[in-house]
Structures are given as structure tokens and as C-alpha cells.
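Quick one, C-alpha cells below. Sequence please?
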């Protein structure tokens, strides 16, 4: 599951790079349900929700969610108290190794 590893890495890197705030923690969760791998990264930073954007050509960062968007079947963000959870879904059927 190279895609799952890359998505988990990108989401965790985003937390380390951008999430600063109450608690200063993050959690990575993985679970499989009905042929779907659900990856979730939760953090305690509640003032800024991640958004998919197109970085300028000369920017050295800002492409993590573009990668997640390209690899995941779907992804999103939901608030929690405190902070937020960013999630991504990947199919993990017999033909997805």
C-alpha cells in the first residue's frame, strides 16, 4: 500500500509543519471497513483548516494535499474539540495491493 504510506506521510508532515496550538499533539489512525482503508490524522490546532490550493511554481511547499487528492478516493476535514481531523479513503480490495 504505497499510496497509503504516502498519504499518511503527507498528512503527518502537514501537522508537524502547520499545526501549532493547544495541546500540541496529533494522532494517526488507520482502520479498514468494507474494503476501504480509512486514514485519519487529528491534531489540536483549531484556528486553520487545511484547504486544497495550487502553490506558485517557485513555492517549495504546499503540495501535500494535492498528492492526497490525487491518490485518495475521497478526503476531507472535520472539526473536533479542540482541533480537527483530516481523513482519506483508499480502496483495499483484492486488486488493490
Amino acid at each position: 500500500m504505497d499510496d497509503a504510506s504516502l498519504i499518511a506521510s503527507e498528512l503527518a508532515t502537514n501537522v508537524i509543519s502547520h499545526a501549532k496550538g493547544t495541546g500540541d499533539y496529533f494522532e494517526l489512525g488507520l482502520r479498514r471497513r468494507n474494503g476501504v482503508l480509512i486514514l485519519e490524522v487529528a491534531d489540536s490546532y483549531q484556528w486553520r483548516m487545511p484547504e486544497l490550493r495550487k502553490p506558485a511554481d517557485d513555492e517549495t511547499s504546499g503540495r501535500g494535499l494535492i498528492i492526497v487528492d490525487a491518490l485518495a478516493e475521497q478526503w476531507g476535514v472535520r472539526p473536533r474539540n479542540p482541533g480537527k481531523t483530516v481523513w482519506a479513503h483508499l480502496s483495499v480490495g483484492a486488486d488493490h495491493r
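The helical segments are 2-18, 64-71. The chain has a mean pLDDT of 84.
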